[in-house]
Amino acid sequence: MASEPFQITQDESFKSVIFDSLPYYDNDLEQHPILKEKVEEELAREAKTPQGLHPHVPPSPKLFANNPLLEAELARVEARQPLPPLDTTRYQLPGPTSTPASEEEWRAALNNARAQLEHQRLRHSNLALLQQYGPNAWRIHNFLLDGTAKNLEKTLEDLRNMTTELNRDRKNFQTRIGTQLTSLETRWTELISSILQIEIANAALETEMARLDKTEAELAAGM
């Protein structure tokens, strides 16, 4: 009924074909199955939908561009490569390998032992801090995550309600406009039919007048 395509220009470089239709009201495909077959054939001949993104969609941001370590780790995860093995030598206390050992070798072994002792001291301090403040920090973190989740759920529910309301408004609008279009189309058909009837009646009158004129002329000639 109201499905004639027309073109509109949104800007100087972009043109789009918009089909003016009322999908909530038009039921031509249901009333005429042959039209549905033709539509399916036309869709089958059309080019497939491109797999890429729309040109107006911005490119994906590059993650961790300012952090080479995280960028390398992300590349490793995307490549599904295993984690590199841990270097356990830094946790060992090897002594000098030569006999007798030199002072430099003993100094290096002693510095390594001091580094290991400092590392263990820091681990002990971190574990003590975690034991003291970790549970509360974790509870606060979970509380914040729960609040964020509730806000997202509420936003999602609001969007769903807005979508439902929009679809309801569109359906009501299209139903109202569709009824008006049907009424106007019916009126147009009636007017066209009336005009055709008048033209047929005029043609019949002209034929009758021509017959009467001919009869009058014959009578005048007989007198």
TrEMBL record:
The keyword Nucleus applies. One of its GO terms (biological process) is mRNA processing. Keywords: Coiled coil, mRNA processing, mRNA splicing, Nucleus, Spliceosome. It is found in: Nucleus. Residues 149-218 form a coiled coil. The keyword Coiled coil applies. One of its GO terms (cellular component) is precatalytic spliceosome. It holds the Pfam family BCAS2. PANTHER family: BCAS2 PROTEIN, PRE-MRNA-SPLICING FACTOR SPF27. Belongs to the SPF27 family. This is Breast carcinoma amplified sequence 2.
